[in-house]
Sequence to fold (95 residues):
Amino acid sequence: MLEAILFLIQGIQKFLVPICFVGAWGLMILVAWSLWTAARDSVKTAQQMHQIPCSGCQFFTDNYRLKCTVHPSVANTEEAIDCTDYQPKTNPYLY
Fold:
C-alpha cells in the first residue's frame, strides 16, 4: 500500500509545477479582470450621476429633509436627469 502511494506521488510531481504555474497565472488574470470590470462600472456610474442637474436648480434646497420643492421624491436620482421643471439658479447667493 505504501509503495503504491509513493509511486502515485512521484508520478504527480512532474505535473505539479505546470499545474500550479497555470493555476497561479489564471488566478492573476481573474483578479485583474475583476478589478478592470469594477473600475469600468464605477466610471460608468459616475458619468451617469454627473448628469443629474439638481444641485444647479433653483428649486434645490440643499436640505436633506426636503431636497427639492417641486419633485422631492425624484431629487438627486437618475429620474431627475431629464427634469422638465429644471430652472438654473439665477441668484448668486443660492450657490
The mean pLDDT is 89.
